[in-house]
Amino acid sequence: MLSPLPADFADGALRLWHLLLHLDFFKYASIPLVAGVVGWSTNWVAIQLTFLPLRFVGWPPWLGWQGIIPAKAGKMAAIFVDTTMVRLGTLPELFQRMEPDKIARQIVTSITPRLEGMTDRILEQADAGLWQNTPDLVKQQVYRRVQECLPDLVDDLMEDASHRIEELIDFKHMISSRLVGDPALLNRLFLESGAEEFKFIVRSGFYFGFLFGLVQLLVWILYPAWWVLPLFGLVVGYATNWIALNVIFRPLEPRRVGPWTVHGIFLRRQREVARIWCRLVTREIVTVRSIIHAMLHGPNSAATRAMIRRHIEPIVWKAAGPVKLPAQLALGPRKMELMARYVGEMSVTVSTAPFDDWHFNRERSAIVEELLRQRMEELPSEEFQDLLRPCFQEDEMKLILMGAGLGLLAGVAQLVFVFGGG
Fold first, then answer.
1. What is the pLDDT of residues 306-327, one digit of tens each?
2. What is the pTM of this model?
3. What angle do helix axes 25-51 and 396-417 make, rounded to 10 degrees?
4. Which of the residues 123, 218, 251, 394 could staple to 131 if both were Cys, CB 3.0 to 4.6 A apart?
């Protein structure tokens, strides 16, 4: 036979039952629903404000907004290099993986069809009349000698560049300038690799908010003070953001909790994220074209141009062969030297053209992608989280407090418009 309930408990339960019968069901049902909507909306707004707008909107510097990631593109790019790229491969190693000998062959293949035209422009630059009056047979000999010299020249040039790659390229500047110049690409690094986590943050806002709302409902029934709804709105806006961010990255290592294995949501997807992230990096950031462009136009471009001229200028004399003596007599040493320099400058100008080939870039990228992916899959969780964590760490508290503020406003609105001011 069941024991009777204690009198005081039964009386309290009876009072609560009578209270519930006299309540407006729809008003009170709105409390957990509004809390869920507040949790969902504050998390959604937080994600939007993290990435958008790409450019500052408003009246700078204080009145307006720019997405947190685009606003700190330089810092985020530096973090990207310092916390991730250095763990996956050095610049010399990545360049060797791209196979400089095949890069050299691509240059030769691309330039060879244009050699005659380039040779004509070079020699006409020195003395148009002399070259135009040169017999066609002699011109053909010059074209042939230039074509014969080109493969060895490019091979030597690429070998030299391979040994001096860190001297010729500021790797951090190369990546930073690419990402700062294209904030949409910087956003994609985070949005594509963390797509599932961002969806979870938004969805979980409703679930966590609804659970908080049930507690809020009970407190409001028993103690309907005017400050309860605004206070709980603030708590919901704050807590849903905070909980979602921590569930993504914690715990770092899998842990058994009863029949379940608990692990950070982002960390569980390490293999999938590595595939997405490495493909984007190797096809749009660290490419053969971007490396060559950084050599020719980056902070250390003067060293690259000097290296190119040093390799190419001697070829001018070797290739000139049949017209070398007449050219020297007609032009003089000074003009011949200027012509050699012009060859070097033209070579710099056309150096990026061979890398407009989409197929060649994709082929080289696939090799580097495989290396980076394997290494990223092997990263310990503590290091792997640095791939996405900086996205949230930058002004993380600002976003959480913003969520709290929006929740507070929602609580005030609910108090005024649903319960008539309490």
1. 888 777 766 666 655 555 545 5
2. 0.75
3. 150
4. 123
